[in-house]
Amino acid sequence: MVDILHQVGVKDASADEAYRALTTLDGLSGWWTENTSGDPSLDGVIQFRFEPGDIDMKVVALDPGSHVRWEVVDGPAEWIGTHVDFAIEPDGDYTLVRFIHEGWAEPVPFMHHCSTKWGVFLMSLKSLLETGAGAPAPRDQKIDAWN
């Protein structure tokens, strides 16, 4: 198994603000995809809609202000059964968001794309928290034919 790992520091945003951006429909649609719906509570399923594909995540762990974990229940074949994990930690003037997309069977070319796109979207999260405006899909930076 292989994982995608990223970390972003958000200046002058609290852990609670970061947590809300990861656990509310308004927060998620502000940095990942504008077309977000569903139930972001524990055991709920959140639907994320993109062009050209869709992803459904089951919320499997919520620790207020510190941790969010999802299981991919529908989406690209390579994603099914993987987990997306956000750990939130204050660090001086920053709040660190440590990201893991874990459980990939192998590092296929699509994983390389997804790693870069997660980085793009984590920078969108940083922008949302620091400036009030993220760049969620469909306004995200396109990187290749997969988007």
Walk me through the structure:
This protein has three helices and seven strands. It has helices at 15-23, 25-31, 109-131, and strands at 2-11, 35-38, 45-49, 54-63, 67-74, 83-91, 94-104. Strand 6 (83-91) and strand 7 (94-104) form a beta hairpin. It has 147 residues and is α+β, with helices and mostly antiparallel strands.
User: What would you call the structural class?
Assistant: alpha+beta
Question: Averaging pLDDT over every residue, what do you get?
Answer: 96
* Share of β-strand residues: 35-45%
What order do the helices and strands follow?
EHHEEEEEEH
- CATH architecture designation: 2-Layer Sandwich
CATH homologous superfamily grouping? START domain
Radius of gyration: 14 Å
InterPro entries: ASHA1/2-like_C, START-like_dom_sf
Organism: Leifsonia sp. NPDC080035
Protein name: SRPBCC domain-containing protein
Domain Activator of Hsp90 ATPase homologue 1/2-like C-terminal: 12-130
Sum up the structure in keywords.
alpha+beta, Alpha-D-Glucose-1,6-Bisphosphate, Chain A, domain 4, about 25% helix, single chain, seven-stranded antiparallel sheet, 7 strands, about 150 residues, 3 helices
Task: Please write out the topology.
Blueprint: E1 2-11, H1 15-23, H2 25-31, E2 35-38, E3 45-49, E4 54-63, E5 67-74, E6 83-91, E7 94-104, H3 109-131
Antiparallel strand pairs: 1-7, 2-3, 3-4, 4-5, 5-6, 6-7
Helix pairs in contact: 1-2
Short recap of the structure:
Residues 12-130 form the Activator of Hsp90 ATPase homologue 1/2-like C-terminal domain. By secondary structure, this protein is an alpha+beta fold.
